[in-house]
Amino acid sequence: MSRAEKTVFIKSYGCQMNVYDSSRMADILERDGYRAVDTPDGADLIILNTCHIREKAAEKVYSELGRLRSIKQSGKTTIAVAGCVAQAEGEEIIARAPVVDMVFGPQSYHRLPDFLATVETGAKVVDTEFPAEDKFDHMPAPARTRTEARGRTAFVTVQEGCDKFCTFCVVPYTRGAEVSRPVEKVIHEARRLVAMGVREITLLGQNVNAYHGVGPDGRDWSLARLLEALAEIDGLDRLRYTTSHPRDMDDALIAAHRDIDILMPYLHLPVQSGSDRILKAMNRQHTRADYFAIIDKLRAAKPDLALSSDFIVGFPGETDADFEDTLDLVSAVGFAQAYSFKYSPRPGTPAAEADDQIDEAVKAERLARLQALLREQQATFAKSLEGRTLSVLYEKSGRKPGQVIGRSPYLQPVVVNGDESLFGRIESVRITTAGPNSLLADRPMASAASTASLEVPA
Ligand code: 5AD
Ligand code: SF4
To answer: For a tag on the chain, would you pick the N or C end, based on fewer CB atoms within 10 A?
Structure first.
C-alpha cells in the first residue's frame, strides 16, 4: 500500500518537555505518513508547540502565526497550535488568529490523527480536555530513524503536571495534576532508546522528584528507586533528571547522588528567591534555611555536585531587602549555572492579582544585578575545571572543521579536535581553557584514545 508522503514542521517553544512532546508527535505522525521537515515553507502541517510560562513566551506564538499567514495563503497548509498556550487560551487562539485550524493541549497529542481527519472535513478542532486515559499508552514508541538522528542523548518524560501551585506559575493549570508514568513503561522506553545507541537519558517532569510511579510490585516507586533500576540498563552511561522541587528532595534521592555512578553530578534545583517572606508569598512551602540544609546534605553525599537554579525577580511585594536576600543566597550557595527571569503576571494565577506589583524598571535593574552575579559564578565554576579531567560524551561537529563538541557532566559544551567517528563515545579529556560558554579540552593521545579502556562510565 502506498501513501502520498506528507510533511510536518514542528516548532517547540519553552521547556525540554515540549521538545520531548514534539518528538513524540512526530512519531505519531510518521505512522500516518508524515515526514518531519525543518522549515515551514511548503509543509502540509505546521505545529507550534507553545509555552505559556511567561508573557513573552506566549506572545511569540502570535507573532509566528502572523508570519505563517502568507504560507497559509500560498498553499494548503494545516496550522496547529499545541502545548500550554493552546491549553490556556483554547478557542481564543482561533478568534485572534483565524489561520489556525487546530488547537490542542498537552494531554491530547495522541488524538492528533483524529484531529487531522476532522480538519479534512473542513471543521476546526479545539481540544483542551484532560482525558482520563494515559496519552503515552496511545503513542507509538520512539522511532528508530529519528532517535538515531537525534543523537546519543534522549529525554524521557516520567512525570507530568504539578500540584504545588506556586502563586506565580501556570503549570498546574496548563499541565494539570501531577501524574507519574508506571516504572515498567519508563524502563521499557529507556531500554529501547539504549538499544538504538542512546547513552545518556534525562528524565523529565515538571516536578520530577515528586515521581511516584507504580512499580512492578504494585507499590509506588520513588524517583530514587527508578534511577537505581535505570542504572542497571547495560549500555546506559549517564542519567540526569529535571526539574526538581526542594520540598521533594528526600534523603533517598540525595543518597542516590552518592550511590549511583552514572547519575551525573549536576542538579537543577530551583529556589526562585532567597527571601523567606517572598518564598512564603510564592507558596514554595520551604524556607531559605531548608534550601541551605538540602544543599549541605547533597554536597556531603556528592562533593563534586554542581548546582543550577531558577530565579524570579520582582515578584509582587519584593523589597530591596528581599532582593538582597536573593543575592546573598546566591553568594552563599555558588551556582554553576542558572536561569533568571523578571516576574511576569500570568492570567489566572494568584500573584497576578496582587496589588503590589513591581515596577518594570525595578525588575530590570534587579535582573541585571542578579545576572551579573550569576554570570560571574558560572565563569568561576568553569575556570575551576581548567586542568581537570572530565568525562565528555561527544555529540556533534563543532563550528570549525576538525572540531567535535561533547557535553561535560555539568552540561557544558566541550570542544576537542576530532571527527565524527567520536560521536556517541564517552572519553576522559583534560580541560585546557574555560571560555564563557564552552570549554576547550585536549583528548588523550590518539593511539590510546582508540582503545576501549578509555571509555569511562562518566
Ligand atoms: N514569571 C517569571 N518567571 C516564571 N517562572 C515560572 N512562572 C513565572 C512567571 N510567572 C520561571 C520559574 C520557573 C521557570 C521554569 O520559569 O523560575 O522555575
Ligand atoms: Fe510551577 Fe511551582 Fe509547580 Fe514548578 S513547582 S511547575 S514553579 S507550580
So the answer is: N
Q: What are the pLDDT digits (tens) for 349-373? A: 999 999 999 999 999 999 999 999 9
- pTM for the predicted model, two decimal places: 0.91
pLDDT in tens, 378-403: 999 999 999 999 999 999 999 999 99
Cα(277) to centroid(ligand 2), Å: 18
Please tell me the distance between residue 343's alpha carbon and the centre of ligand 1 in angstroms: 7
Picking from 84, 74, 9, the residue whose alpha carbon sits closest to that of residue 44 is: 9
Residue 171 Cβ inside 6 Å of ligand 2? The answer reads yes
Q: H-type helices in 242-359, by residue range?
A: 251-259, 276-281, 288-301, 320-333
- Inform me whether the pLDDT recorded for 237 exceeds 90: yes
Q: Ligand 2 test: best mutation among 163, 167, 169, 271, most atoms within 8 Å of CB?
A: 169
Domain 389-451 CATH class label: mainly beta
Domain extent listing, the chain: 3-127, 135-384, 389-451
In CATH terms, 135-384 corresponds, of 3.30.450.40, 3.30.360.10, 3.80.30.20, 3.20.20.450, to 3.80.30.20
CA-only gyration radius of the chain, Å:
23
